[in-house]
């Protein structure tokens, strides 16, 4: 049986973007726009809209507006997750964010990937690679997490970092491309 372009997209296989997007993505963007338009003071309305927009939202999760998504339905947020203003989550692949993770303003989490060959890119083919962020991670403002990345529990990603490789549990990374920083020596008591 032939797969639809969306089924290929969700399986991480090459798909044609113009054929996969369609009505569903337009409907999901309407939900995103509606969520972004709800004033912060209307907490119950925001919570209901957030639950409708995202695939999963844990108890106590906060997503400040504006937030930008491709679908939203492929994003799973654990309990107590915090996303600050202006985050971009391109979820053609699944994005999982663990409990108690804090994400600074203007962070980009990207799952869409594209061919490196220019002729192949002209065909409109792309694919998604899932991103998994562990629990209790802190991601500084303006960081970019590229497709296919896994970030371990308790990691720290410095502001403005471009994460091109998996981040080990408990590691601190910074820079472009992000590199693991040596642990700081503890000061004598």
TrEMBL record:
Pfam families: Hexapep, Mac
Keyword tags: Acyltransferase, Nodulation, Repeat, Transferase
Domain of life: Bacteria
UniProt KW Isomerase keyword: no
Cell cycle recorded as keyword: no
Database matches in SUPFAM superfamilies: Trimeric LpxA-like enzymes
A GO cellular component annotation in the UniProt record: cytosol
One Gene Ontology molecular-function label: O-acyltransferase activity
Maltose/galactoside acetyltransferase domain residues: 6-59
PANTHER family membership: ACETYLTRANSFERASE C18B11.09C-RELATED (PTHR23416:SF23), SIALIC ACID SYNTHASE-RELATED (PTHR23416)
Role according to the record: Acetyltransferase implicated in the O-acetylation of Nod factors.
Family: Belongs to the transferase hexapeptide repeat family.
Protein name in UniProt: Nodulation protein L
Lineage: Bacteria, Pseudomonadati, Pseudomonadota, Alphaproteobacteria, Hyphomicrobiales
Record gene name: nodL
């Amino acid at each position: 049986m032939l797969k639809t372009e969306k089924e290929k997209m969700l399986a991480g296989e090459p798909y044609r973007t113009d054929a996969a997007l369609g009505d569903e993505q337009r409907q999901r963007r309407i939900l995103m726009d509606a969520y972004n338009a709800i004033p912060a003071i209307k907490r119950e309305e925001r919570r209901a809209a957030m639950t409708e927009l995202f695939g999963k939202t844990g108890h106590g999760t906060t997503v400040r507006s504006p937030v930008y998504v491709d679908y939203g339905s492929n994003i799973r947020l654990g309990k107590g997750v915090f996303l600050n203003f202006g985050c971009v989550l391109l979820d053609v692949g699944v994005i999982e964010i663990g409990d108690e993770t804090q994400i600074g303003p203007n962070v980009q989490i990207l799952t869409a990937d594209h061919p490196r060959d220019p002729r192949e890119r002209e065909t409109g083919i792309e694919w998604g690679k899932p991103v998994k962020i562990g629990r209790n991670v802190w991601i500084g403002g303006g960081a970019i997490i590229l497709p296919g990345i896994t970030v371990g529990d308790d990691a720290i990603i410095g502001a403005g970092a471009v994460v091109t490789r998996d981040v080990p549990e408990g590691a601190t990374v910074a820079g472009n491309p992000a590199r693991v920083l040596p642990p700081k020596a503890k000061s004598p008591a």
